[in-house]
Amino acid sequence: MADLVTLKAANAGRWANAQLQRRASFISVAQHLVALNAKQRYQAVSAQTGVPWFAIAVIHEREASQDWTGNLAQGDPWNRVSVHVPAGRGPFRSWEDAATDALVNCQPHAARNKDWSIGGLLTKLEEYNGLGYAARGAPSPYVWAGTNQYVSGKYVRDGVYDPGAIDHQLGCAGLLLAMAALDRTISFDGKLPPIVTQPTKPKSSPDVPKPPSVAHPAKGSIGDFIVNLISIFKRKSK
Description:
By secondary structure, this protein is mostly helical. Helix content is 46%, strand content 5%.
């Protein structure tokens, strides 16, 4: 079993040296995760669970590609009983109810976490996907895919690890870096951000358009500006 104290230190060290390798993709997705209509929904769940809204956002992206019909727990439709692990959850009345259940009642019980430092945050996100990579001493693609901290290696199905397989989804750490450059209220100092006291009521139509494919930003574009912000943010956070 992985030692969580050691894993927190390892993830904090990786964070300090992380660089985005799929910059345009990270920026494009991050723009949708920090959009006001999405942020308000994540903040509503944060108010119920104590989990930072930006952590909820990156879990939503990894588990359901920010599909508001997908359960935060595993991406299954929240209006039906889930069939993937954790199975047997639901049906729920709303995405928010399903997300709260996932964080409060399902492993790794993120709502019970008290350590939201960058090492603690990244390790809780890694626990969300499982500690099989940590047991191998390998960076989790769930957290690090798309950054220079991950090359290859992936569990292609339960209990089956393929060292040559590559996770092509964007990892949580890179998403957090891109989000923090876009939304300066995001902080990784270990303190929970302010939560809304009156969560905004979800719109009747919960679907949020997915980000379109974008070309690599040209020199002098918003992409370069955001990358500069990321560099400044990482220097300040050390």
